Request: fold
Amino acid sequence: MTTVTLNIQLDDKVKRAYQSQPAESRARLQKLVARMLQEFAESRPESLLAIMDEMSQEAEMSELTPEILADICLS
Reply:
């Protein structure tokens, strides 16, 4: 599989929170986002909520706490 870089716009607080995480946490988050986008591209748009639920479960299994995710995701 070929990989590409996707640039998305985020506010500065999200950027700082992401960059402050250890490399292992950033790598796990990158995999979660990549998987979500891949599944979204391959599925019907109405299944987005199911994908989001699965991502939440994977985040929990990867020990990405709600606090870490909030730091990364919230502005």
Q: What stands out?
A: The chain has one domain: 12-73.
